[in-house]
Amino acid sequence: MSNPHRVVLLAGPSGSGKSYIAQQSGLPVLCLDDFYKDGDDPTLPIRNGQIDWESPDSWDAEAAVEVIDQLVRHGRADVPVYAINEDRRVATRRFELASSPLFVAEGIFAAEIVGECRRRGLLAGAYALRRPRSATFLRRLARDLAEQRKGPRVLLLRGLALLRAEPAVLRRQTGLGAEAARGRDVLRRVAGLLAAGHPPQIG
C-alpha cells in the first residue's frame, strides 16, 4: 500500500526566506534546524578552534530522515525542540499531519537528505531558494539580532562570511538534487502537486 503523505524539502542559504515560504504554502512545516547536534556532541566539526555550525556535520541527518519517514508513513512523530541560543535540544513535541498529503521540511541542510528521502520513496519535491544576496544578508542579520542568537559582532562577522559563501552553498544544494527556484515558483509547484491529487513518488 502506498504511503498517504510525501515531503517537500526546502533548502537555501541562511536567511533566504525558507521559513516564510514554507508557512506561505499552507502545509504543515517541519523545521529541520531542530535537528542540530547538541553543543557538547564530540562529533561536532571544529574550524579555527570553533564549532562550525555551517557544516552539514553539525546536523543530525539520520535523525531528520527517520522523523520524515515516520511522518510519511504514519502522519505523526515526536520531534526535537532545539534552542539555538543554548546550542542544545530542550524538549520534544508531537508533530501531526492530519489529512494533509504533503508537508514541508525546511532548513539550510535540507538538500543533504534529498537522496535518502528519494531512495525511501518519501519525496514529492526538493527546492533550494534563490534570491538576491544582499536581501538575504539583511534578512538574516535582522532575524539573528532580533532572536539574540549570538552577540551583535559575532552575528555581523558570520553574516559577512555567509554572504561570501552563498554561491557555493547554492551550488552544493543543487548538486545534491534540490532545484534552484524563487519563492513564488516553489509555491506554484507545491500548489500544482496538491491540485494533482495524491502526489506521486519522485524517483
UniProtKB/TrEMBL annotation:
ATP-binding listed as a keyword: yes
SUPFAM superfamilies xref list: P-loop containing nucleoside triphosphate hydrolases
Molecular functions per Gene Ontology: ATP binding
InterPro entries, per database record: P-loop_NTPase
Entry keywords, A to Z: ATP-binding, Nucleotide-binding
Protein name per the record: ATP-binding protein
Natural source organism: Micromonospora sediminimaris
